[in-house]
## 1
Amino acid sequence: MKMEIPNMLRREFLSNCVRKLPALAAMASVTASWKSVWAGGNDNYDPSEHDYAMAIDIHKCIGCGRCVEACKKENNVPMDDTHFRTWVERYVISEEGETLVDSPHGGMNGFPELKEDVKVLRTFFVPKLCNHCENPPCVQVCPVGATFVSPDGVVLVDEDYCVGCRYCIQACPYGARFLHPVKKVAEKCTFCYHRITKGMLPACVEVCPTQARIFGDKKKTSSPLRRFLRFMDITVLKPWMNTKPKVYYGGADGEVT
Amino acid sequence: MTKIPQQLIPLVILFALIIVVFVAARQQFVPESFGELGFYRADALKEISSQEPKYVGAETCGDCHDDVYETKANSYHRGVACEACHGAGYMHVEAPDENELFAPRGRDYCPVCHGYNPSRPSGFPQILATVHNPGKPCMTCHDPHNPTLPHTPEDCNACHRSIANEKLVSHHTELPCTQCHQVPVEHRKNPRLVRAEKPTSRATCGTCHAENANSREGIPRVDMETHGERQVCWQCHYPHSPEGR
């Protein structure tokens, strides 16, 4: 009798395995099925092979605002003064240690001359956009699952599913989101998802005349992005928020937040 | 068999009904692909990526405009995408004759990048539009696809405008740049390949500021042996504006 118990267990275990095989196969097919999602777009594209990120070289930005204009045109962002997926800020640090930041029209039409009474210690341009955080607060707060991190590491908004509650706009520490004035849904930078999945560069990177923006794949070991990350002193915006941003700034001043 | 208490029967029916309605409603309202990849609609990825690009990329332009593309590829503007100046090209690609692209020819466009702005990196070529050949469109002298200067610049401030501006209002205003920098002639034509030299030792400043220097009166002098110890002068004094900074 004592000898039979282990035999019974083994038999039970094996029969259980056989019985649960279809369930395991079903689970595997779910993970495989999202490759079929791409059947309509680019057949060769597998989002799990990528992890997109951007680097910005502060030393190279000339504040021409071509990126802002290109982004607006590429993504049909309203051409007004308040809605931007990317924008350029001018930092002016005075001799008194005061930091002045301005971004008239997002920097799209250039920057006016500095006020004469400001004694400039340092001044530079900082392009900003959604940081595509690895730990995005905007995704956490979305009540309906309309915003999410894609398998290739891009934070996206499902505009058909967004209810326009604006939680995500409040949650974003970088002010990168806005409510589309006509569609009444949350909008933000997508790294030009429709371009990068076709192997193109985001519009802002494409038009940047000084290559101040570097776009790339963190999973690709030999790329301009990885080289930049290796050789520059990298900072991210508001690291204390624990958002793990994926827009890396090279040569950014400590004042930049 | 135990009997279900009579008072529970309506409750069981009610609960069964609620569950049926919930399941049916969920089936109806939750999109098909929801939850496939995570707490979102997997189809959204496909929808977002199906948007058509408007900026076609410089390689596409090169397919037809190979001559201009070639010129630009060998010029200082090699890194500037065609669409940075000409605008998005998606309509032009579909029907080139009907949708001609915008070509900025006025004097207001080039300063978008090349106008002097103190926030710009100081090595970036910048001009003051009000004093740089006023009235002439940029294209009369510069070919935008190959902007190498039509003649070699005479002054350093043609490129190093921000430094020149600072020096202009400092005590060093009368000194020529070559007082401290050795500038090979070739540097004016190929600034990135042939660099101008910077001072390497304290002796450069010492030629005027040492106590026994042969320079005119009134110039501040220091004892080169004791002043500043191990530092070189420009670790504390900015030579282009020695008063402050």
Note: Chain B touches chain A at residues 31, 33-34, 36-55, 57-58, 77, 79-81, 83-84, 87-88, 112-113, 115, 117-121, 124, 244-245 (CB under 8 Å).
## 2
Amino acid sequence: MLGQYLPLLALLLLAAAFAAGSFIASGLLAPRNPSLAKRAAYECGIVPSRETPERFPVRFFLVAMIFIVFDIEIIFFYPYAVAFGGLGVFGLVLIMVFTFAVFESFVYLIGNGALEWGPLKQVARPSGAVSPDRTVETTIRRVGLEDRGIPADDGQAA
Amino acid sequence: MLAQLDATPVETPEIVWAGLLPLLILSAGALLLVMLRSVVKRLPADVEPHLITAIGPITVLGMWFAAGLAGTDVPLAGLRDDMGEPAFYIGLALVMVLAGTLVRTMEIGLDAAITVGLGLSAFAATWGIWDDRWQVTGPFNAIGDQFAVDGFALLFAGVLAASVVLVALLLDGYLRRESLDGPEMYVLMLLSAAGGIVMTGANDLIVIFLGIETLSIAVYVMAAMHNRRTESQEAGLKYFVLGAFASAFLLYGIAFTYGATGSTNLVDIQIFLSSGQLVDNGLLMAAFGLLLVGFGFKIAAAPFHAWTPDVYQGAPTPVVAFMASAVKAAGFAALLRVFMLGFFSHVDDWRPAIGALAVLTLIVGSVMAIVQSDVKRMLAYSSISHAGFILVGVHAASLAGINSVAFYAVAYTFLVIGSFGVLTVVSGVGDRATSLDDLNGMAKRRPVLAFMFTVFLLAQAGVPLTAGFVAKFEVINAAVDSEFYWLAIVAMLTAVVSAFLYLRIVLSMYLGTADGDAADLGDPIPKAAGLAIGIAFAVTVGFGILPGPLSDLASDALPALIGAG
């Protein structure tokens, strides 16, 4: 009875043998002449004094959440697909209800901008201290209240 | 192989949709609300007020249809025949206009209005089933033999729907004050209440577990919803970790029950246990213990109460109102169902454990409350002591005991929502002003609110002419009827001890003088919150003076187990 799993076991052994063989072969055959420059983490620039903090946009987290939404849906679809014939209309209605309920969270995520990767929309009222206009001389946004005709108090409050 | 599977149709359970209507209204309503608010982010400013006003008449129609669908006849058919058809329908139209006006004067937000409408419709559906189906045909199963519709489940479903309505009214002003507007809180609350309804009628331990998880997971998130307050985050995390722990215990208990009895279905368990075929009593004892630990966490019974003060203090105050009312009521409904129906033949085995829990809970709840200086914390301990009182009713394990638990759950729901409703209003932005000193001189700043808070607190202490007194009286009466005098005495003594705590709050409201920088400056109360507190007040005093109707309702509301077929 367990005989039907024999190919699986053979594949497992083959995969393990291949992985181990590759490691051993590269260890034996690869030429080695290390130098200081080769070992450095970065070849140019200032030598980092500490690990840089790994920051990434929170949107990646939302993408992971969307993945989980569909993952859960798929997990339930598989057993349903196997028993599809026996469950009949009852099963179809139930899986539709389930799909709708899970899909709902996807709609919520999309509705709240989980897949909007463009530049952030300007939500806050632009403050008087920063002018979005570029001048002739420079493309850098002008910061400050000089020569704008805006009272200084207003800028501080904003 | 696949062909074989195709050939054997799976037996599908018989479903009585009408019996599931309250559950369907709450859960489908929550999904539709989140859909609506995700697709339409912002309504035009000139449309929104009219839409909100329209929710009033729509709610009346929704209640009408829900009651009609749940029952077998047109709702209020008797009244219609008395009044004659034209007059009756004109009256209905008038009520719709009135509802619209009421919504308009309440200045309520769209999400809150929809939630209140859904809660009221679910309540109407519960009433329809009660009046037109359950009282006619007796208890019945709604999904196969998994979900029962009986008086007990219906009463608790009504309690859950009512607490959704009241807490939504409180949430509206609160969320606006804290700039947390959004549909999320309401959606979570609706889903949580739907889970609670699953718990109240579940006939199978697995279904109870499903209900508990639906109920709890939503509340974990609600507790952490105030994302700018670290206390709220802390409360959410604490509640989540300990709740998950409790769920594990419960699941372990279910597994042991299955091991001892060979089934997770309460009907089968009852039949098996009363037939006396049980081989391994130790396994069953372990199951009792583990299930009690699991439920004990949910209802905050000592010694599983440790999370309560921290979570109640940190979570947003309206959420605490929901936790103390709906979550606790659903927990007790499930506890009573499992032990009184499933395990009744072994009552002598589980009764001592419940008795010990009750005594410990009563003592911890009342004694620890005295040394607190934060009102939210005090009320957290007082809710623990109330759980002790309800456990006294469960411990009686008699008809009177079940009735007293039902009465207590209804009365306590309104009491506690009223109390935390007042705290919501007076605690100021960020829920900061919740210490006893902050309430100093409240009677001068807000005389009406202080008076109502006093009544709620006195009702919690069990002063006559309030629903709290009748509730405590019935519980102790049930204990005396079953001849557990020692438990009745402990309950009465701890009631005296905890009266001190309530009087302390009342004294500081009336006698204390406010220092200059009190956070609560007597800002106008949000009208919706005022309405919720007013309703809670009316119910508390109304059922205190005339407990008859609620008493009859509670004594009608008996749980029942119906086997398959």
Note: Chain B has a mean pLDDT of 90.
